[in-house]
């Protein structure tokens, strides 16, 4: 807001000054330099980055924010002194900074500073720095000239009796040296010969120099104006011309620049700016603006940047604006004008202007004369409660008989040359009721469609007509507040309304009885809002709509729906007031931020922004306030209206595209420069501005890369996009307020970041390279960690294999022993039972491992209680001197059986032994002797274990 206020005040002052000058200056923007520091030096590097030298260090400026370099607690000793007097750029992207106490070199790629102290007490103050065409850096001090030797990394001194304060160079490589009260000198670099020139002025001080495009040397003196040497190679007869000599102001110049657009040399001084024509040194104009101007630079294409004490950095333009503004003389106007509501012309000479809040004006462009309200010829009788000065006019149309119909808040005002104007008062004619008239549209049969606050009427003449009944599918929307009407190439009418969305009227326009109505509104599900300011069909027959809420819509022919396209075409959601097309098929939108030129295309439309920096004196538009006549577009504004030729605007804006650069790298929201050098070297070998490869540490949660388009004009209207190859599916689009690509928790890997931008004129700029971003994995996910994992896994697998193999072998051996001890079924079928028993006893005696001893003890315990049917798990565990769970786990591991199954197996094996010894024993006695309560349960268990009943077992023994 403060910047806008400063710009407005400066524009008003500059307009007053420029009116008296042959060449007009336009202030494009003002950038205050924050703080109390005083800025003395301004420079652009070859990338287009702006650098400012102050008494508190030096700063870089990318068009959005400053970055400061100076001595303080966190960066001590980077400069020999914070008071910067001079800056130059060498051919290796290095910056040389001259201070009050020495010289510093800033290696921009590595972010390193090195201080040089020139020899001699008078060499501390670096008055001037200059890089010649061969890349040699020259320093001017109070002791003379110092020349940098790159091989020795040191300076060679040339002692002079006067302090050196400026440099210049001709096409032959000669160096011109300007001194304080020591005149002008010329040095031949090859021979080392130095010559002096005749005295230039009384003080003989060469404050600044400029070698123009014709080889002439311009000299800004101290207190004696400007001197031009037409033949600077001839020191005896240089052809001297003097400008502004003898004045008490505009006589001490700090900087001279050449501007090809204004065909002049411009100088800055304490009193303001001075222009001298390149061909006529008598054509000198002094501009008493921008006082205390210390430095100035130019891009050679009509743009000047002045460094001032009171106004900061001021961007000026010498290019005449393509927007022609017509100011209205308010003399004779009853009420003050807020803005121009409507512009209309039938011949391009006389313009009807509907005023806000009330009134009408007729402006003659040829004579620059304007008359208001009843002073307009023919309007003399339009006074009283229906007077012209109490009406608001929102639309105008010319009729075949030459009459002009004007849509008014009181009805329809009809004006015709040579006749008294007449007012069709609302409520007195059949084609509109007691309502305000807002819009007109001429029909092929001579009738006029009249848009009202409460419906649509059709006028066949001034006295005949009717209101239209609008309905579709049982919905009646006749009571609609009409704002505008547009006809497409199919002769369909598109009515923009407030409250009823958009209404399409098709049929024969010459016969209202054939009209068919179709509504686009939320209730119909084909338009998201219920209001529209205007509808427009472009040259490609696509239908667009704008709404008061800032919506920009495109009709989808396949779905018959209006879809919002603000984000697709980067049109802001602020106020959209009008939509109009030019002869080249482009669309112009008036917005609360200025004019937008939109070039429709199938996928991505190019948008261009124009505002006060481009010469639009005031951004104050009205709804449907655009009008086209021939190749010109007209817009109402505050205190007047302006026009432009769209083709001329396109030619005017041509120029070199700005550079797209990286301005900052942030890791976990901390700028790169805040980290120590060790951390910085791990992340990137070069500063973010130059980085082609960035390594993100594994412990970083997120990183951000900030970028900027070095446009320095309409920067807020620049648009940006970024795409991280390997992660993003599509480009991310953002605006000037969010020029940062931020990513969080990216998976480890290698990605490539691509950047592109478009300036306010729609010129697309792509970063010429992609930035390789390596997200490092944590230590446990690095290649060497995985190698360790593989080795450990292999060792673990081998160990597990050996352990499992040993366990299987041991278990197999134990199982084999258990089977031999307990599994008597196979031995039952053997004829020699006694031999088997002896073998078993022998084998049992050979078992000596702890598990085998435990198993043998378990068998003995069961046999000792073989006839005890109540011998259970708890008593068994007690006899074994272990807990019941331990007994269970142990038997399970050794035999694969639980406690009960183990006891039953012993009982049944003993039963087999008894049957062999006593074949005639009764089943009841047998079952009781081995601990079974009933013969039936015993027989069931016996068969389950051996597959045969006890009786069948005896039969097998007999055989």
Would you mind describing this structure in some detail?
With 959 residues, this protein is an alpha+beta fold. Helices cover 18% and strands 37% of the residues. The chain has 13 helices and 68 strands. The strands form 17 sheets. Strands 61, 63, 64, 66, 67 and 68 form a six-stranded mixed β-sheet that branches. Strands 1-28-27-26 form a four-stranded antiparallel β-sheet. A hairpin with a 4-residue loop joins strand 30 and strand 31. It is flat.
Annotate the secondary structure layout.
Blueprint (H helix, E strand, L loop, with lengths): L1 H17 L7 E6 L7 E6 L5 E5 L2 E5 L4 E4 L14 E6 L4 E6 L2 E6 L4 E5 L9 E6 L5 E5 L2 E6 L4 E6 L4 E6 L5 E5 L4 E4 L6 E3 L9 E6 L5 E5 L4 E4 L10 E4 L9 E7 L4 E6 L2 E6 L6 E4 L5 E6 L4 E6 L4 E5 L6 E4 L11 E7 L4 E7 L3 E5 L4 E4 L20 E6 L5 E5 L2 E5 L6 E4 L11 E6 L5 E5 L3 E4 L5 E3 L3 E2 L2 E2 L4 E7 L5 E6 L3 E5 L9 E5 L13 E4 L5 E4 L5 E5 L4 E4 L11 E6 L5 E5 L2 E6 L6 E5 L15 E4 L2 E6 L2 E6 H7 L7 E8 L2 E2 L5 H7 L9 E4 L5 E8 L9 E7 L6 E4 L4 E5 L4 E10 L5 E3 L4 E5 L7 H40 L2 H4 L4 H14 L3 H15 L8 H8 L3 H12 L3 H19 L5 H7 L5 H12 ...
Parallel strand pairs: 61-68
Antiparallel strand pairs: 1-28, 2-3, 3-4, 4-5, 6-7, 7-8, 8-9, 10-11, 11-12, 12-13, 14-15, 15-16, 16-17, 18-19, 19-20, 20-21, 22-23, 23-24, 24-25, 26-27, 27-28, 29-58, 30-31, 31-32, 32-33, 34-35, 35-36, 36-37, 38-39, 39-40, 40-41, 42-43, 44-45, 45-46, 46-47, 48-49, 49-50, 50-51, 52-53, 53-54, ...
């Amino acid at each position: 807001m403060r910047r806008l206020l400063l710009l407005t005040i400066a524009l008003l002052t500059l307009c007053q000054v420029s009116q008296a000058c042959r060449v007009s200056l336009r202030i494009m923007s003002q950038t205050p330099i924050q703080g109390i520091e005083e800025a003395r030096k301004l420079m652009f590097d070859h990338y287009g980055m702006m650098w400012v030298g102050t008494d508190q260090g030096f700063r870089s400026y990318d068009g959005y924010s400053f970055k400061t370099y100076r001595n303080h607690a966190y960066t001590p000793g980077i400069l020999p002194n914070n008071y910067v007097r001079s800056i130059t750029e060498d051919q290796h992207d290095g910056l040389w900074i001259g201070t009050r106490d020495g010289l510093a070199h800033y290696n921009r790629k590595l972010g390193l500073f090195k201080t040089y102290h020139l020899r001699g007490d008078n060499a501390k103050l670096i008055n001037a720095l200059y890089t010649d065409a061969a890349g040699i850096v020259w320093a001017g001090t109070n002791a003379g000239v110092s020349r940098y030797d790159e091989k020795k990394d040191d300076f060679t001194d040339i002692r002079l009796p006067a302090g050196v304060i400026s440099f210049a160079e001709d096409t032959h490589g000669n160096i011109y040296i300007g001194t304080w009260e020591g005149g002008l000198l010329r040095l031949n670099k090859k021979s080392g010969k130095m010559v002096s020139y005749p005295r230039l002025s009384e003080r003989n001080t060469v404050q600044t120099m400029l070698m123009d495009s014709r080889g002439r040397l311009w000299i800004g003196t101290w207190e004696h104006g400007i001197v031009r040497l037409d033949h600077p190679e001839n020191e005896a007869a240089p052809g001297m011309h003097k400008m502004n000599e003898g004045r008490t102001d505009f006589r001490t110049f700090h900087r001279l620049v050449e501007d090809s657009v204004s065909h002049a040399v411009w100088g800055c001084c304490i009193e303001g700016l001075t222009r001298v024509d390149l061909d006529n040194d008598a054509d000198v104009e002094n501009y008493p603006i921008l006082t205390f101007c210390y430095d100035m630079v130019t891009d050679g294409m009509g743009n000047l940047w002045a460094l001032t004490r009171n106004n900061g950095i001021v961007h000026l333009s010498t290019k005449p604006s393509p927007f022609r503004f017509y100011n209205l003389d308010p003399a004779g106007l009853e009420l003050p004008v807020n803005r121009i509501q409507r512009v209309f012309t039938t011949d391009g000479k006389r313009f009807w202007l509907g005023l806000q809040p009330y009134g009408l004006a007729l402006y003659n462009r040829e004579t620059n004369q304007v008359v208001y309200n009843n002073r307009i010829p023919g309007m003399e009788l339009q006074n009283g409660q229906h007077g012209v000065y109490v009406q608001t006019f929102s639309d105008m149309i010319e009729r075949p008989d030459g009459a002009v119909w004007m849509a008014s808040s009181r009805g329809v005002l009809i004006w015709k040359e040579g006749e008294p104007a007449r007012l069709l008062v609302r409520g007195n004619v059949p084609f509109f009721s007691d309502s305000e008239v807002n819009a007109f549209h001429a029909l092929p049969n001579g009738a006029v469609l009249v848009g009202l606050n409460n419906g649509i009427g059709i006028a066949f003449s001034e006295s005949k007509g009717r209101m239209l009944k609008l309905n579709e599918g049982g919905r009646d929307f006749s009571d609609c507040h009409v704002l505008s009407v547009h006809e497409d190439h199919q002769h369909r009418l598109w009515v923009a309304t407030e409250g009823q969305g958009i209404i399409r009227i098709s049929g024969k326009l010459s016969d209202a009885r054939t009209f068919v109505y179709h509504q686009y509104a939320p209730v119909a599900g084909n338009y998201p809002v219920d209001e529209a300011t205007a509808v427009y069909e472009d040259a490609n027959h696509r239908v667009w709509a704008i709404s008061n809420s800032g919506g920009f819509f495109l009709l989808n022919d396949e779905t018959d729906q209006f879809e919002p396209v603000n984000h697709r075409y980067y049109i802001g959601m602020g106020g959209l007031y009008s939509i109009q097309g030019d002869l080249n098929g482009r669309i112009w939108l008036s917005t609360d931020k200025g004019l937008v030129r939109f070039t429709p295309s199938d996928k991505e439309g190019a948008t261009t922004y124009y505002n006060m920096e481009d010469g639009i004196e005031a951004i104050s538009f009205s709804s449907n306030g655009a009008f086209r006549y021939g190749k010109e577009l007209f817009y109402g504004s505050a205190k007047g209206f302006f026009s432009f030729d769209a083709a001329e605007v396109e030619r005017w804006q041509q120029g070199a595209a700005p550079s797209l650069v990286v301005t900052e790298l942030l890791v976990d929201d901390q700028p790169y420069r805040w980290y120590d050098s060790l951390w910085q070297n791990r992340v990137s070998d070069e500063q973010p501005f130059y980085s082609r490869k960035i390594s993100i540490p594994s412990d970083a949660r997120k990183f951000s890369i900030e970028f900027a388009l070095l446009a320095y004009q309409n920067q807020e209207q620049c648009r940006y996009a970024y795409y991280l190859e390997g992660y993003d599916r599509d480009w991310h689009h953002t605006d000037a307020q969010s020029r940062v690509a931020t990513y969080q928790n990216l998976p480890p890997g290698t990605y490539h970041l691509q950047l592109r931008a478009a300036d306010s004129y729609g010129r697309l700029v792509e970063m010429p390279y992609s930035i390789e971003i390596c997200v490092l994995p944590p230590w446990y996910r690095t290649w060497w960690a995985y190698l360790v994992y593989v080795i450990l896994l292999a060792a673990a697998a081998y160990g597990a294999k050996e352990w499992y193999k040993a366990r299987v072998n041991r278990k197999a051996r134990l199982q084999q022993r258990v089977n031999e001890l307990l599994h008597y079924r196979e031995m039952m079928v053997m004829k020699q039972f006694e031999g088997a028993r002896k073998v078993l006893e022998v084998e049992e005696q050979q078992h000596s491992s702890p598990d085998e001893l435990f198993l043998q003890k378990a068998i003995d315990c069961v046999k000792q209680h073989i006839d005890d049917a109540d011998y259970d798990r708890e008593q068994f565990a007690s006899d074994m001197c272990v807990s019941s769970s331990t007994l269970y786990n142990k038997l399970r591991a050794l035999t694969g059986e639980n406690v009960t199954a183990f006891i039953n197996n012993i009982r049944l094996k003993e039963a087999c032994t008894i049957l062999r010894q006593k074949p005639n024993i009764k089943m009841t006695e047998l079952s009781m002797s081995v601990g079974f309560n009933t013969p039936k349960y015993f027989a069931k268990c016996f068969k389950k274990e051996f597959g045969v009943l006890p009786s069948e077992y005896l039969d097998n023994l007999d055989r």
